[in-house]
Amino acid sequence: MSVRRITPAGILVAAAVALAGCGSQSTVAPAAAPAEAPAPAAAPATSAAPALTITDPWVKTAKKGMSAAFGTLVNNTDAEVTVVSVASPLSPKVELHEVVDSKGKMIMRPKEGGIVIPPKGTHQLQPGGDHIMLMGVTEAVKPGAEIPFTLHLKDGGTLEFTAVGKDFAGGQENYQPGTDPEGHEGMGTGESHG
After folding, report:
1. Sign (positive or negative) of CA dihedral 89, 95, 96, 99
2. Tens of pLDDT along 40-64?
3. Distance of CA 185 to CAs 5, 32, 106, Å?
4. CB 90 within 8 A of CB 138
5. Do strands 158-166 and 52-60 pair parallel, antiparallel, or not at all (unpaired)?
6. Which contacts of 171-174 are long-range, i.e. CB under 8 A and separated by 24 or more positions?
7. CA-closest candidate to residue 150, choices 89, 62, 73, 194
8. How much of the chain is helix, strand and coil, in % rounded to 5?
């Protein structure tokens, strides 16, 4: 008879051990589920990355006339991205410009073919180099002003961004029209834009 008493007690001990083992497994399972949940949420953010972005966009302060916008264009794709035009409510005429050496004189002119950003690369928009030219600005650009821009890409896409007004005296580019009828050739150095 004592064997019968031990057997039911042994079964109860075995059952308790088995239940304890199941309990710890169910505790682990819910902990694993939340760890997996963020992975699907991260995937759409990666696939939704825009083809082109801009870092640190800014516009030179100006009371009237001309100004320019700068920043760093960042291509997030495996193919070239080309900016072909730009618009801003600040100016009726906005162009992509470059500064080049012409017969020993630095001049500013429209950038033929637009601005090409290499795959997974960057392109600097800076004083004395490629930049966004604003002609006939419609209102004064003060420090801290927020100016909207829209870049138009060769593939039909766009990039909208806001540039911040910033005082800048360096570069000393002359963004005043030269002698040609289009007002592009002959824009030289020596006078700050704006």
Report:
1. negative
2. 444 444 456 789 999 999 999 999 9
3. 107, 66, 10
4. yes
5. parallel
6. 171/127, 171/128, 173/68, 173/99, 173/108, 173/127, 173/128, 174/108
7. 89
8. 25, 40, 35
pLDDT band at 189 (very low <50, low <70, confident <90, very high): very low
Tens of pLDDT along 87-123?
999 999 999 999 999 999 999 999 999 999 999 999 9
Beta strands 66-75 and 131-135, pairing class: antiparallel
Q: Which long-range contacts (CB under 8 A, 24 or more apart) does 144-150 make?
A: 145/59, 145/61, 147/59, 147/69, 147/88, 147/90, 148/88, 148/89, 149/57, 149/69, 149/86, 149/87, 149/88, 149/94, 150/86, 150/87, 150/88
Q: Which residues contact 151 (CB under 8 A, 6 or more apart)?
A: 52, 54, 83, 85, 86, 158, 159, 160, 161
* Residue appearing with tokens 């090409």: 116
For the question of whether the overall pTM of this predicted structure is more than 0.85, the answer is no
148-159 pLDDT per residue, tens = 999 999 999 999
Alpha-carbon gap, residue 5 to 26, rounded angstroms: 32
